Automatic annotation (TrEMBL):
The chain crosses the membrane at residues 24-46, 99-118, 130-155, 175-199, 220-241, 283-305. This is Sugar ABC transporter permease. InterPro entries: MetI-like, MetI-like_sf. The keyword Transmembrane applies. Belongs to the binding-protein-dependent transport system permease family. Residues 93-300 form the ABC transmembrane type-1 domain. One of its GO terms (cellular component) is plasma membrane. It comes from Bradyrhizobium manausense. The keyword Endoplasmic reticulum does not apply. Pfam families: BPD_transp_1. One of its GO terms (biological process) is transmembrane transport. Keywords: Membrane, Transmembrane, Transmembrane helix, Transport.
Length: 315
């Protein structure tokens, strides 16, 4: 082969200037998309820090001329929420906390147990069981409202009977407990899917070795599976926390008045008619409502994709 052929057959290398230009274009587009995405949040923050007269008479993109945190104080403890006598969203905020924390913990634990059983303790029909739970992931919220209402009504009557007999209803019929039950049941299909796929890639040899050593069902789960499940636990907690905290349909259906969660209270606040729409108070309340999910993503968001990919490849 001649020298000329070697020259013509060698692929041309692009100079460093080309790659630098490509990076500039990519980062420029990413910055533009991020800016467009964050503009509504920026407007919300600026509006919540302005007096009402400045909001109604000025440019919504203008920076606050008189910085004030009074709208935040009013949203938290003074604003009227619908027809309720409760003032501010603080009580409803803690209603959501009392609902979300146990619902996330219970659904995550049950999903982990289901995934463990379906992958390491296979039984006749386990694929059918998993298929049915997977099918539950595609059932829309609206389809389960009436069945859930019937079940919760029956549990409430049981709670009344227990209260008459023992003096304790064990929370049956309580609005917060009802919402915990609803979210655990509805989220169980998703949590089972996450853990089942993750544990399918977990070495079965470790489980078999523990069985030979005499470890019980729960000892294997507690000492071997759970300590190695941190990535998928983070994924499940983020997913469940976000879905449950942001839910409006179940909250507005199965809770009312002072027992309502944060999203229902925010809707009631915005739709409360007092003659003047206090946009700054509404924006402050919306930011408070969104803060927990934003905080969860800021703290653990980088582990979300890592946890999803952890069980993607077996071996």
């Amino acid at each position: 082969m001649s020298a000329a052929d070697l020259v013509t057959s060698t692929p041309s290398r692009r100079g460093p200037g080309h790659s630098r230009t490509t990076r500039i274009v990519i980062y420029g587009l990413l910055f533009l998309f991020a800016l467009v995405y964050l503009v509504p949040l920026l407007v919300m923050v600026m509006t919540s820090l302005k007096p009402l007269d400045e909001v109604t008479g000025g440019n919504m993109f203008a920076l606050p001329r008189h910085l004030t945190f009074a709208p935040w104080s009013m949203a938290w403890g003074e604003a009227r929420i619908g027809v309720s006598d409760t003032r501010g969203i603080s009580g409803y905020f803690f209603n959501s906390v009392k609902m979300v924390v146990p619902a996330v913990l219970i659904s995550t634990l049950l999903g982990a147990l289901n995934g463990y059983v379906l992958t390491k303790w296979s039984f006749s029909g386990h694929k059918l069981v998993f298929g049915m739970m997977l099918f539950a992931c595609f059932i829309p919220f609206q389809s389960v409202i009436i069945p859930m209402a019937v079940i919760l009504g029956a549990l409430g009557r049981i709670g009344v009977g227990l209260a008459d007999l023992t003096g304790w209803s064990f929370g049956l019929g309580n609005a917060t407990v009802n919402l915990v039950i609803v979210h655990v049941i509805y989220g169980l299909g998703f949590t089972t899917l996450f853990f089942r796929n993750y544990y399918a890639a977990f070495p079965s040899e470790l489980v078999k070795a523990a069985m030979i050593d005499g470890a019980s069902f729960f000892q294997i789960f507690r000492r071997i599976l759970l300590p190695n499940s941190t990535p998928i636990i983070i994924v499940t907690v983020i997913y469940q926390f976000t879905n449950i905290w942001n839910d409006f349909l179940f909250g507005s259906t199965f809770a009312a008045g002072d027992t309502a969660p944060m999203t229902v209270a925010l809707n009631n606040l915005v739709n409360t008619s007092t003659g003047v729409v206090e946009y700054n108070v509404n924006m402050a309340a919306a930011i408070i409502a969104a803060a927990p999910t934003l905080l969860v993503y800021v703290i653990a968001g980088r582990y979300f994709v890592r946890g999803l990919m952890a069980g993607a490849v077996k071996g």
